[in-house]
Amino acid sequence: MEIDLDHLRSWIGRTETAADLVTVRLANGLQATLGDAPLAEGDRAPPAIQWCLAPPIVAAAEIGPDGHPARGGFLPPVPLPRRMWAGGSLRFHAPILVGDRVERRSRIADVTVKAGRSGSLCFVAVDHEYVTSRGLAVEERHDIVYRDAATGPARTAPVETPAPQWRESVTADPVLLFRYSALTFNGHRIHYDRRYAMEVEGYEGLVVHGPLQATLLLRLAGRVKERPPASFSFRGVNPLFDGADFSVAAAETADGLRLWTARASGEATMIADAVWA
EC top class, in one word (predicted)? Predict the structure, then answer.
């Protein structure tokens, strides 16, 4: 499929602002999904709560065949049909509290096209700032990748990981995926429509969300060090599917922690680095 890169790059610099409340119900929905204790008004919200805030909400008539909002608007209208969360980075400046009103200020930072094993890949980088009444709380770089349709799931070469010093097991079942989709108002059908995921997009099963894996890694980092990191970067390296337990693991590095999620076979699906100032 031909990509007019100059046209897509004309979106660079576009901005969008949205706001939402960190309600007790929303915070405790995420806590319950992760298996954590409930929170009260004024408590520190989970460190990945920003991914549950102000999701794009469009009418049913404006949804594309994959369950995402139709192309165009704030994000450039990339003609490649498969859209995935590729990775990103976070820098934490101040906590977000339960009860906060959070404003997200977004800007299209870059649009690039590369040739991959599975065909053409278009990367869209979006910068976000999350601001509360106390000032800037979180800075984020969000990397989105678009790819061709009939190529099956994208895979990379195996990624080596160190021996884990901390490891937890998570059951990847449809209920976990459904609850996280509901928390983030994510309509992407690969997370709940098994027939679509397997027959249309060529996956082996339902796909575990990238931000859910990143949330679990960020949660483990905070538990290991007993405080959230100053910065956290992550990228997906292979798809993760439902139907079996997966591991969330970490090991010490010179700067902090290397973290990763992995299938039961040991194959890494997301890798991340957490650094403490």
Answer: lyase
Residue type present at position 230: A
Local mean pLDDT, 10-residue blocks, the chain (277 residues): 88 97 98 97 96 93 87 87 92 98 98 82 97 98 88 66 96 96 96 95 95 98 96 96 96 97 96 95
Distance CA 115, CA 118 (A): 8
How far from 147 is each of 68, 125, 176, 230, CA to CA, in Å? 15, 15, 26, 32
Tokens matching residue 92: 């934490």
Joined together, the tokens standing for residue 260 give 């990763």
Residue that is written with structure tokens 């979106």 in the block: 11
For the stretch 72-121, pLDDT in tens is 789 999 999 888 899 999 999 999 999 999 999 999 999 999 886 667 89
* C-alpha Rg value of the chain to the nearest Å: 18
Specify the residue for token string 């490891």: 167
Q: Helix axis angle, 24-34 relative to 174-184, nearest 10°?
A: 160
The token pair that represents 36 in the structure block: 């954590």
Separation of CA 21 from chain center: 20
Q: Are 212 and 30 in contact (CB under 8 A)?
A: no
Q: Please report which helix (H) or strand (E) contains residue 211, including its range.
A: helix 210-225
Tell me 190's DSSP state. Answer: G
**Neighbouring residues of 143: CB distance < 8 A, sequence distance ≥ 6:** 85, 86, 87, 88, 123, 124, 125, 235
Count helices and strands (H / E) in the chain: 5, 10
Task: Delimit the domains of the chain by residue range.
Answer: 5-275
CA 252 from centre of chain: 23
